[in-house]
Design a protein that fits this description.
Elements lengths: L2 H13 L2 H8 L3 H15 L15 H28 L4 E7 L1 H6 L2 H10 L3 E7 L2 H9 L5 E5 L7 E15 L22 E3 L4 H12 L8 E3 L2 H9 L5 E4 L4 H6 L3 E3 L7 E9 L6 H10 L11
Parallel strand pairs: 1-2, 1-3, 5-6
Antiparallel strand pairs: 3-9, 4-7, 4-8, 4-9
Helix pairs in contact: 1-2, 1-3, 1-4, 2-3, 6-11
């Protein structure tokens, strides 16, 4: 038995899916099934109860899984400690992020990180918020980046930054001429929102409820880019994170109007699996995410 066998088995148990475990480990679904049967032959006992429709471990399988997690934790801890002793910052960091953070917030941090640590590879996947949490729980990625983080027992959340929420309109829209707007000015306007299950949409809906406003979107989209394009062609107005419309504001394709006397923000967070051993590269990445990106990187 090699350490890879235990990792594949642990991933299978946590995802409850042969295909997902295969994807995480870069092997075929058939190979995962063969690995599971090989472990059963090795331990001379059934580990997976195949009489059930849903994935379920036998009592022996649960014990092997528990032991596998302990071994994997100690193995990852050992690797991390050896890297720290050698002062090595290398490896691959896998990130799952919602579109708005990945496209508009993350790039300068990754640029700085790769500048400082060129031996590290960074892989970014763009996902819906609920799938970012799933990726973390399944150990498919090292870090997740989300807005309006929710508490999950198996996930640690580190504050990243706060986005300011602003109103955007077409440059020729009547509200575009104002230096500031009040929330009540949105009533009666064609409002474009995110899909109802997206955290920013839920937060905007709560803002409307708190201010006793009844506003129903005329359009709903699942990502920031489509929302912006709809506003650019004057199909309506929208409330979005200010960091996501920097380019359009400079180009004059969108007008950005702050809210008078009120500050609405969108908290962002870094997620990782609770109890996970952080490699030196992962620790440095978290340090970079805490930096002020208005300052250029120092030449070395």
């Amino acid at each position: 038995m090699q350490i890879e066998n235990f990792k594949i088995f642990a991933d299978l148990v946590e995802t409850k899916s042969f295909s997902k475990s295969a994807k995480i480990n870069g092997i075929t679904q058939s190979a995962v099934s063969q690995q599971a049967r090989a472990m059963e032959r090795h331990f001379k006992t059934l580990l997976i109860d195949r009489s059930q429709k849903q994935f379920q471990l036998t009592r022996e399988g649960q014990r092997v899984y528990d032991a596998a997690k302990e071994m994997l934790h100690q193995y990852e801890k050992l690797l991390s400690e050896l890297q720290e002793m050698k002062k090595i910052i290398s490896g691959t960091i896998r990130i799952s992020t919602i579109y708005s953070i990945g496209l508009h917030e993350l790039p300068p941090y990754i640029k700085r990180f790769l500048h400082d640590y060129p031996s590290v590879n960074v892989r970014v996947e763009y996902r819906r918020s609920n799938l970012v949490y799933e990726d973390i729980l399944h150990n498919s990625v090292d870090f997740g980046l989300v807005a309006f983080p929710v508490k999950v027992r198996q996930i640690d959340s580190i504050p990243f930054r706060n986005d300011r929420l602003v109103l955007i309109t077409h440059p020729n829209h009547a509200l575009a001429k104002r230096p500031e707007v009040e929330l009540k000015d949105i009533v009666g306007q064609r409002f474009i929102g995110f899909d109802p299950d997206i955290p920013t949409r839920k937060a905007v809906d709560q803002i409307f409820r708190d201010n006793k406003l009844e506003i129903e979107p005329v359009m709903e989209f699942d990502n920031i880019e489509t929302v912006k394009r709809a506003v650019e062609i004057d199909h309506g107005i929208a409330i979005v994170p200010q960091a996501t419309i920097t380019q359009e504001s400079k180009q004059g394709t969108l007008s950005v109007i702050p809210f008078r006397g009120k500050e609405f923000t969108r908290p962002l967070a870094i997620l990782h699996r609770k109890g996970r051993v952080l490699t030196p590269a992962m620790k440095k990445f978290i340090e970079i995410l805490g930096m002020d990106m208005t300052q250029p990187p120092q030449e070395t």
